[in-house]
Amino acid sequence: MDWLAAIPAVLLCASLLVLPGLPITYLLGLRRLTAVALAPVVVVAVVVLTAMAASKLGIAWSPLPVLGVFAGLTVVIACVVIPLRKRLPRPAAGDGWPVVGASVLGLAGAALLGALTVRLSIRGPEELIQTEDSAFHYNAIANILNTGDASTLMIDTLGVPGRAHGFYPAAWHDLASLFVMITGGSVPAAANILSISIALVIWPLGCVLLMRQLAGPSRTALGLAGLMSIAFGAFPWEMLGWGILWPNLLGLSLVPAALAALLSVAKLATEDAIGRGRAWLLVPMFGVAVTIAHPNAVISLAAVAVPVVFVGFARASIRRYRAGRRGTAALMAAPIVLAAPAYWLVVVESGLFAGTMNAESPPFESPSHALGEALTGATNGRGAGWVLAVLVIIGAVSCFRQRFRRWLVASHAISVGLYVLAAGVPGAGRRVFTGFWYTDSHRLAAMIPITGVPLAVIGTIAVVAAVRSWLSSASFLEHRRVMAARASAAALPVVVVLALVATGGLNLLDHRNRVLSAYPKVDPLVSQEEHALFERIGERTEPGTIVAQMPYNGSPVVMALSGRQVLFPQLNIGRLTADQIYLARNLSKAATDPRVCEIAGRLNVRYLLTNDIPRGNLWDGLTYPTGEGFRQIDQGGTFKLYRITACDAPAG
Hints:
The longest helix is centred in the first third of the chain and has 29 residues, at 187-215. The protein has helices at residues 3-16, 22-27, 32-57, 63-81, 97-121, 134-147, 171-183, 187-215, 219-228, 233-237, 246-265, 276-293, 295-322, 326-349, 354-357, 367-376, 386-401, 406-424, 431-434, 441-445, 448-473, 481-502, 504-516, 528-540, 558-562, 578-586, 594-603, and strands spanning 546-548, 565-566, 605-610, 631-636, 639-643. It is globular and about 90 Å long. 62% of the residues lie in helices and 3% in strands. By secondary structure, it is mainly α. A 5-stranded mixed β-sheet has the order 2-1-3-5-4. The two termini are 47 Å apart. α1 crosses α8, α3 (32-57) crosses α4 and α9 (219-228) crosses α21 (448-473). β4 (631-636) and β5 (639-643) form a beta hairpin.
């Protein structure tokens, strides 16, 4: 399948991320652009909660229970809202159609440029991504399809028989599994299409909503926000090519919308499009959606929201103090005063976050170099986006001159500072702040566009205003009012076109290169012949049987391509059981070692897939067998598939 043939599937995926949530956002009193931008939050929250409930109730995972929950929730909310509609606050006034049209135009531009980036970097929707984490994510989807269990408490047991259940962010995997069930497509195609839809639908919508809360119903601001949402390489493009961090992609894509709602709560929104009461109702939904998408995203939201919360509490405290309510004023000021010591006690002294805080990722450049990268968009050694950097700086200066927007500059400084700590500052002390992200510069760089997009938009508007001011005062147009008016009106499209040309389509080549790193076109991990063999394994083996293989040679994707369980579906070998380790070392001795067949029979391991010779390591039992007890039944490229005949039950 090529991308042209996949257009209906992409449109379907984009629709499924938005449309199911629209009735609920509408009943909550949201309208037009705001209702659409917040609908994906509802979709993610409902899907993950349904997955957990279905697992507890023993209901097999499929689109039907999800559809039932959406329908039931819509009916329940309608039964509450409709009878009380005269007593409840009036629905938020939807923005006028010219504002909506400008937003759609910007979003369409972003979608076109984004689609071109995807076409230049990924051959087709079924192309395999080849990074360390891709096998886990592919096989987590396949495991959901095989077991009918999509709970976030079950994903972490993948490939580890008997492992105690634990939390793993499963929102992305739940959505992908539903898409496979609905379309009947492959797991790799679902992974690619879903991730691209998140990057080009959920993230841009959130950026537009955040800009709406910052600038009010400004056609210029909202149109530019949609277009510039895909201008930064660190996000969403880095998340499509490094890691691979698909769950982080989903989580961070929800953060701009969540920040927009927090502006309503803190009374910092300009001509609020959400409403404070509705924002409070949405807070639990954001908590569920963002947390189960990825906990890193919750911490990212908290980090960029620190100035919002600070300003919100400070204003509330001042208002109450001036009204003579000093006790309440002190109560409102308490979180500001106690925030730092509380952070120290919870994060440092309690040890609750020791697992992530102890993860070390050494700095790789000087602090000044890291700061330069963060300011120019050249994070992690990528190409600098000078035009975008200038617009962000102009936007920051403009915001700082407007007191009500200074919090945005502070939020951006926090994101930039965290990246500098991870990339350029040595020492364990930095992990007190960066440990939530494993002190990983890629995850931290992805935060910068959250505030970078609105700053770039504000910077562009400032440039357009300066051009118009110059035109209105230009002496050569002094007596030509009609010409001056036309020139002023043309200032915005001219500036936008010049920016597009100067940046090469909003840094298109840099974005392509970031994505290409996960889709190598030369010397791929799995050749076409091997890919074909992996797909045939579903026909050559019986349902329920397990295929033994090594985790480092590309073979874990057998599970995603064929639907057959493999013995090592992920690369995290620190979690192997004693049975898995014994088979890894001794499976090739099946004809002479009775314990091999005892374990293989218990785990239902009936096949061996290999492409290697013994090398004196843990995996020597999974190399080409040289003795009796194995029968080759297929081959593709360097891989050979064997039936473990030594462990077959005797006839009779």
